[in-house]
Amino acid sequence: MTRKILKWGALAALVGMALYLILALYAQQEFVFAMLFLVLTASAVFVFVNKKLYAHRYIFPAVAGMGLFVIFPLMYTVGIGFTNYSASNLLSFERVQENLLDRTYQSDSVRYSYELYETGAGYVLYLEGDHQDLVSAPLVLDGADSSAPVLPASEKPAGEPLAIRDIIQLRSELSQLELLTEDGRELSMASLRAFAAIRDQFMLHDNGSITDNQTDTTYFPDHDTGFYRSADGQTLSPGWTVNIGWDNYLKVVSDPSIRGPFFEIFVWTLSFAVATVVFTLALGLLLANLLQWDQIRGKGFYRTMLILPYAVPAFISILVFKGLFNQNFGEINLVLEGLFGMRPDWFSDPALARTMILIVNTWLGYPYMMLLTMGLLQAIPRDLYEASAMDGAGPVNNLFNVTLPLIIKPLMPLLIASFAFNFNNFVLIALLTGGAPDIIGASTPAGTTDLLVSYTYRIAFQDSGQNFGLAAAIATAIFLVVGALSLINLKLSKVKV
Amino acid sequence: MAMVQPRSTKYRVLASHLGMLGFIVIILFPLLMVISISFRSGNFASGSLLPENPSLEHWYLALGIPYTGEDGTVTQPPFPVLLWLWNSIKIAVVSAVLILALSTTSAYAFARMRFAGKGFVLKSMLIFQMFPPVLSLVALYALFDKIGNHVSWLGLNTHGAVIVASLGGMALHIWTIKGYFDSIDRSLEEAAIVDGATTWQAFRYILLPLSVPILVVVFILAFIMTIMEYPMASVLLVDTDKLTLAVGAQQYLYEQNYLWGDFAAAAVLSGLPITLIFLYCQKWIVGGLTAGGVKG
């Protein structure tokens, strides 16, 4: 009985928390996220209350985790790809309008010069205007945001006003001050010597347009580009996020300053992934073959030494290589200079940078291939090699006519997985070169060693424009590639469920 | 033992040994170099593999102890390496525990129960596993930004966010554990259920104790993978004090502030334990990786 109460209590508490979150998100007009958590909570309650779905209770947390952190972000990213979501168009239309209508400016027409008097009870402000003078009650200037009423006055307070250097010292406190006149106007500090009236910068009309009170320009909301736009084409910042259809994709194809770098990076990504798989497989297979050979002693030692690069955390070994390849202080260039008298510029020459990346990635990746192929080689019956030796075959013949044909089938899915992993090998690029050297003439940050993933990352997070929309469009293209690869893989590996 | 041996075998064995030893020397060069550099004085010193004037200054700094040079100048540790290591371990342990608990229960259902959509869910898990989280970082960032407005310990710049985000990578572990469960005879559990045990009891008291080895492997795998996770942590964490090792370590090698020697000591200090754990567990880990094709 108590167990039951506990169970229902826990469920109720969780649902309560979830509902709070959903309502809060809904109130902030985050409809997508409110919907996400609503679906999540509803399915959780459904699964845990329904007796028939007992088995689903076991898998629910894992499936929900994948849904929340893999599938939802994936779909959300695809969605962003069709919008102009970026640093300049970050907010929703309602928030942009709110933001603009909150803006104020200081009027030039209503200005008061002022004097500040120090009295026993605090500071007294005396404002001299064109039509009337105003005076405040004694104020405590402690820097907190405060507003104080000012009343019409006819004569200045007694005593000497503070000198300008004392006012400079009190400047930050004075600038926090808001003065309210009897007729409801607000005044704030405009300069060291003057206070001026604060006015709303924009006025909203019924048809949705807004007028700038300062310049008297009217701006109309343009829901195609996500900006308020005036008749002569001026736009107001910030803009809001709107759906722009296939524009991001068209930009990749048509804008030469994006198309050029994109295709260069695409070709490099493909060649990098293929080359990595080929190099690591060749090296791994060779070493695995040597380690399988009965004549070799000390296999345990060799094995441990050879998988060391795999055992060291990648983020450390990549940074180690970054230091070793450094042009001026790097140990690799010291060795090369000693032997051949040259100091290659590994990080600023595109071809050398790409060579370096392939060297490092082969170093990182061959132990994995070695371990994989060692397992597969063990499954090959020994008599096949006996037979080929009788026929006078050498090691090369053995490799191409016996070993490879036998292991290629089980190896294929693993090679495709390795290809997909390296196609998206973000950590290597981010830590080793960061994409450098840059491609000249690109309008978004793009480097000659960037892979598509690091390219999208840089567009989204390192560029000042933070063009999330464009980054998401390119990410969607990569999703398609990865999705196709993993479907092929599923077919090839004949997964049994 | 092969019966037919060509005459040249002896030379080929010798050549293989020499070839492999030479290869190992090249492969280990970077690792040995880093150890050597961590004992050199100064951040720009060059020299042979065995440092002529070994100095412990980088090690002091890596351990967070200010170092007093021979001329009396005091160098403060540039970065809180031990704190980063602690952050990494904390995040990795918590998320490995969560991943283990959740993926074990799901794997149990997938291995032992029949229910609607089982094959579909299992296959889609395998497919979605291949999508790198780097690509949906914008969405993940937005997600945690929005959650963080209401649940502060899950927002941006919290370890909670990194831990929770790591739960997205459970599919691989579910497959690994399910494969192991499949290899265990189910008659014991069936007997227990006939005797009146509930499904949960059969799982908890019969299957789980039999599966301790694979649970240890999955725990270590999840632990290592979270420690090495870079892209999500690099976007979600901001403050220097909150960074994980994988994100923080690169700060040593900025162009403007190149601390090669300090990096070397920090790298050896933090990399060594992880390397040793990996080497110790490699036999089991390799089996798990072959199933999913992760790293490399």
SSE layout and pairings?
The complex is a heterodimer of chains A (497) and B (296).
Chain A (H helix, E strand, L loop, with lengths): L1 H26 L3 H19 L4 H27 L12 H9 L2 E16 L2 E7 L4 E4 L9 E8 L10 H6 L1 H5 L1 E4 L5 E6 L2 E7 L1 E3 L5 E3 L5 E5 L4 E4 L16 H8 L1 H37 L6 H13 L2 H11 L6 H10 L9 H29 L3 H9 L4 H29 L2 H7 L19 H11 L5 H26 L4
Parallel strand pairs in A: 4-5
Antiparallel strand pairs in A: 1-2, 1-7, 2-3, 3-4, 5-6, 6-7, 8-9, 9-10, 10-11
Chain B lengths: L8 H30 L18 H6 L4 E2 L5 E2 L5 H32 L5 H11 L8 H12 L10 H8 L4 H12 L4 H8 L4 H12 L1 H17 L2 H6 L8 H4 L4 E2 L2 E2 L1 H33 L4
GO biological process, one term (chain B): maltodextrin transmembrane transport
Main location (chain B): membrane
Function (chain B): Part of the ABC transporter complex MalEFGK involved in maltose/maltodextrin import. Probably responsible for the translocation of the substrate across the membrane.
Can you give a write-up of this model?
The complex is a heterodimer of chains A (497) and B (296). Chain A contains 17 helices and eleven strands. Chain A is an alpha+beta fold and 497 residues long. The longest helix of chain A is centred in the middle third of the chain and has 37 residues, at 256-292. The radius of gyration of chain A is 35 Å and the shape is elongated. The mean pLDDT of chain A is 87. With 296 residues, chain B is mainly α. Chain B has a domain at 81-244 and 278-284: MetI-like fold. Helices cover 65% and strands 3% of the residues of chain B. In chain B, a hairpin with a 5-residue loop joins strand 1 and strand 2. In chain B, helix 10 crosses helix 13 (260-292). At the A-B interface, helix 1, helix 3, helix 8, helix 9 and helix 10 of A face helix 1, helix 3, helix 4, helix 5 and helix 10 of B. Chain B: This is Maltose/maltodextrin transport system permease protein MalG. Chain B: It holds the Pfam family BPD_transp_1.
